[in-house]
Please model this.
Amino acid sequence: MILIFINPRILLSDYYQDTDIYCRMKKKFGDLAAVDGINFHVNAGECFGILGPNGAGKTTTVRMVYGFSPKTAGTLKVFGLDIEKDWRSIKSRIGVCQQENSLDPDLSVEQNLLVFARYFNIPPGRAREKAQQLLQFISLDNRRGAKVTALSGGMTRRMILARPLINDPELLILDEPTTGLDPQARHQLWQRLEELKTGGLTVLLTTHYMDEASRLCDRLVIMHQGKILVEGKPADLIREHVGHNVIEVDDPAENLRAFVNSQNLECEDLGHRLIIYGQGRDDLFHEIGDRFCTGGCILRMATLEDVFLKLTGRELKE
Ligand SMILES: Nc1ncnc2c1ncn2[C@@H]1O[C@H](COP(=O)(O)OP(=O)(O)OP(=O)(O)O)[C@@H](O)[C@H]1O
Ligand SMILES: [Mg+2]
Model:
């Protein structure tokens, strides 16, 4: 018998080198395990999403990744480097958009960018040039002299996106970048993020918008109570957990519930509405519509929101 000994430390160190983020970590606040042993990695050039209900641990996770909050236990590597030991060199390669507005209210739009450039020792001429490019990129060059307090919510979010880009980061971390924006502003921000991604930027994103995650994320995790429930590509998660389509029946008749049981179909019973996961059976909608529906009955494509609600439940978490 031939025994081959492979040193797991060598394998792991190779693995870190190929990922922009590698983590296997925990965060406790007193007795609360806000992040309760999660494990994921993000490849270079990928957009990776963290979804989860309020209080799931998303912000706590990204704060550890950008070095704002130390992990309680585990391993966290960014660009293959240890976040605690190599923080200085990691910091200069990442950009962060926090969940809250962290712009300086006393400064103008342009000054906010220029002051930020100073943290990275960018020479003033280069900083002005870069600020000009970024203001064009977010369509705010005509508001460069305005106080940031005079900007609308959408403009403020665009500024929050632009500021960390002053340093040409390799990894951009976005904590709920489009919360509170109107559809136009969200679509514009998505387009900007897609352009950045095409340029090779790695993105770590938290969001409550499932359409945003479906559109932007190559892979994502859904977190709940500090743990990761599932990980995968959006389309794979939908197919695996919900199927191809969903049938929603308002005020369902009792015999529909019996039919659903007899067909071994997965469903969610909300009382006034039955949500039936079609599992690729195209014939079901017509059969259910013809035999059991007197009120509303719709057939629609399954979405990431169905996966999210199925896995994390429908009741409020906080
Ligand atoms: N500094 C802190 N001290 C104590 N508890 C904290 C602290 N920060 C977060 N928590 C708790 O950790 C848990 C996770 O919070 P976190 O902010 O990471 O959630 P989230 O998923 O980002 O939620 P949201 O969607 O509302 O932004 C919550 O129960 C929260 O109350
Ligand atoms: Mg949060």
